[in-house]
Amino acid sequence: MTNTDHxxxxxxxxxxxASDRPVVKHVVKDLNTAVRMxxxxxxxxxxxxxxxxxxxxxxxxxxxxxxxxxxxxxIAKIRLGMSAGEKxxxxxxxxxxxxxxxxxxxxxxxxxxxxxPEDQVSVASALLTLLVTMIGANLRSIISxxxxxxxxxxxxSTPTKGRKDGES
Length: 168
What we know:
Radius of gyration: 40 Å
Strand content: under 5%
Helix content: 55-70%
Distance between the termini: 125 Å
Oligomer: single chain
Shape: elongated
Structural class: mainly alpha
Number of strands: 0
């Protein structure tokens, strides 16, 4: 009997198989072969786990792409359903503050550099005031319309005292 006869079986007899695959038991005659065999088996198991992880990652990415496409479709439906007035209001609400910044900043810059002649400063400031007032009014109307849409209810006409409905 040799020194390595106790390594005849790599698998423990109490160990249960991890899946429904049959347990393959190999007879090993020396320690070096047993170690190499364990390394090869561990590498195969690691590759199998890696393949499963890649499959799961691909499934998750596909689900994310599908969800993004659904959201894009919903956004497109909302945009298609918007009237021209709603689109204009949305544009002014988003770009209005930027317009104000550009107008006022440009005016201040032109004043600082002397690009506006002294006799034309009052005209330029009046035009700027007009534009800022109009853009501000548009922004206020957008805010007031969006804020009070839910609160608006049709007013019921109530007859005044002494008059019947239909009398003038």
